[in-house]
Design a protein that fits this description.
The protein has one domain: Glutaredoxin. The protein is 49% helix and 10% strand. The protein is globular, with a radius of gyration of 20 Å. Strand 3 (182-185) and strand 4 (189-192) form a beta hairpin. A four-stranded mixed sheet has the order 2-1-3-4, sandwiched between helices. It has a two-stranded antiparallel sheet with strand order 5-6. It is of the alpha+beta class. Pfam families: DSBA. It comes from Lysinibacillus odysseyi 34hs-1 = NBRC 100172.
């Protein structure tokens, strides 16, 4: 089964939705038969590359609210995040242009390091307040998950993978994605946003049943005496 996820690294509900999906997959019994592909989505590509405005200031301008009102709004999001084990720190978050981060994600995908890369960037942004729009920060975070610095610099110093990022965004537009996170199960079922946890589990079950998947056996008890490869434990 394939699950495609459109998300952005500065979207608070994308990290929450990521955790919900991971939990549903782990508990489904189909974990080894599910492939998850993260696709690019830019919430605000007009954000200047060098802008690192405090998130409360940015939200106040965007929604025409006082800073106190934005703090109350983000406090509610932080509560949602905590429910899935994430300790959001809005006090240290800054605005960021994520175009370069998405291009590097395509390199990480080629090198089979996309899961670690995506997790590291979201953790860096929401929990640590890292400026993930800055090349120096991206280089350091990418190296932390095993990406070669020379290859990372090559991507950042060029327009490499820009076409793939744009293709993801175009595909999202074609299937009607207006916001993220957006999850597509086996190119048939879609979930928009960080919905209640049971919905993820139900959708996986339905898609798996239609695909004819069989759940993995869950072992119970301790390992007992057994024979394998022509030998028996005595």
């Amino acid at each position: 089964m394939k699950i495609e996820v459109w998300s952005d690294y500065v979207c608070p509900f994308c990290y929450i939705g990521k955790r919900q999906l991971e939990k549903a997959i782990k508990e489904s019994g189909y974990e080894e038969q599910i492939e998850v592909e993260y696709k690019s989505f830019l919430l605000d590509p007009s954000t200047p590359i060098d802008m690192e405005e405090p998130i409360f200031t940015a939200l106040s301008k965007k929604y025409n609210l006082s800073e106190e009102e934005t703090k109350k709004m983000t406090a509610n999001v932080a509560v949602r995040a905590k429910e899935v084990g994430l300790e959001y720190n809005f006090d240290v978050m800054k605005t960021a242009n994520t175009t370069a981060a998405h291009r590097l994600a395509k390199l990480a995908n080629e090198l089979e390091k996309a899961p670690a890369y995506n997790e590291r960037l979201m953790k860096a942004y929401f929990l640590e307040g890292e400026a993930i729009g800055r090349p120096d920060v991206l280089k350091r975070l990418a190296e932390e998950v095993g990406l070669d610095r020379a290859k990372v610099e090559e991507v950042l110093d060029s327009r490499q993978f820009e076409d793939i990022v744009e293709a993801d965004i175009y595909e999202a537009q074609q299937i009607g994605v207006r916001g993220v996170p957006f999850f597509v199960f086996n190119n048939k079922y879609g979930i928009s946003g960080a919905q209640p946890q049971p919905l993820f589990a139900q959708t996986i079950e339905q898609a798996a049943a239609e695909a004819g998947l069989r759940k993995s056996i869950q072992l119970v008890g301790e390992g007992g005496a057994a024979c394998s490869d022509g030998e028996c434990e005595i």
